[in-house]
Every structure is written in C-alpha cells, then in structure tokens.
Amino acid sequence: MPDPLGLIGPLSPPPLPHGAGRAAVGHDPTQPSFRETLERQIDQVNRLQRDAKEAIEDLAAGRRDDLESVMIATQKADTAFRMLLQVRNKVMDAFEEVKQIRV
C-alpha cells in the first residue's frame, strides 16, 4: 500500500543549522549499539546463573563449605535475571506502543 500522505519514506536526519557538525546527530560509532549492550547483559546474566548453579552443586557435593558465598552468588543471579526480565518487559511495552501508532 503506498503512503498517501508521503510521510513514510527513507529516514534521513533533519537538516542541521549552519555551522553544526554531523557528530551532533545520530549514533556515535565508538559506543556499542543497544543490541550489543543487550547481548552483553544476557551473556553476563547467563554467566552469573552458571556460577550460582556450580556453587550450589559444589556445596551439595561437599567441595565447598561457605554457605554465604553460595547464597550471595544465587542472589546475584536472581537479581540480574529479574532486572533483565524487567528490561525485556519495558522493550515489549514500547514495541506494543509503537504497534498502536496509526499512520
């Protein structure tokens, strides 16, 4: 379906005022993208969960006797997972809002 109002098309940044450089608009190539940041956080949560599982298994097998560090590792993994879940929920809410936009 063609765009009857001509509002949808290739995205281009708005024109800059005279004397303004291109660095003021757009993505900074030295900064990681949202996707890269999210993937890194997912990997970190996964690593924390593996560490907690390993600590629990070591405690159960008798290879470890410090219950405090096992509990701390478990709490860290749980907190990180809950935070990641909230980020996911916010992204899904934003996606739903964008889907509701009428053009």
What structural category do the secondary elements indicate?
mainly alpha
Q: Outline, from the CA principal axes? A: elongated
Which consecutive residue ranges, at least 5 long each, have pLDDT under 50?
none
| Relative helix content | 55-70%
Indicate the mean pLDDT: 83
Radius of gyration from CA coordinates = 23 Å
Account of the 3D structure:
- The protein is mainly alpha-helical and 103 residues long.
- The chain has a domain at 32-100.
- 60% of the residues lie in helices and 0% in strands.
- α1 (34-61) packs antiparallel against α2 (67-100).
- The radius of gyration is 23 Å and the shape is elongated.
Describe how the helices and strands are arranged.
Layout (H helix, E strand, L loop, with lengths): L33 H28 L5 H34 L3
Care to give the gist of this entry?
The chain has 103 residues and is mostly helical. Helices cover 60% and strands 0% of the residues. It is elongated, with a radius of gyration of 23 Å.
What keywords describe this structure?
mainly alpha; elongated; 103 residues; 0% strand
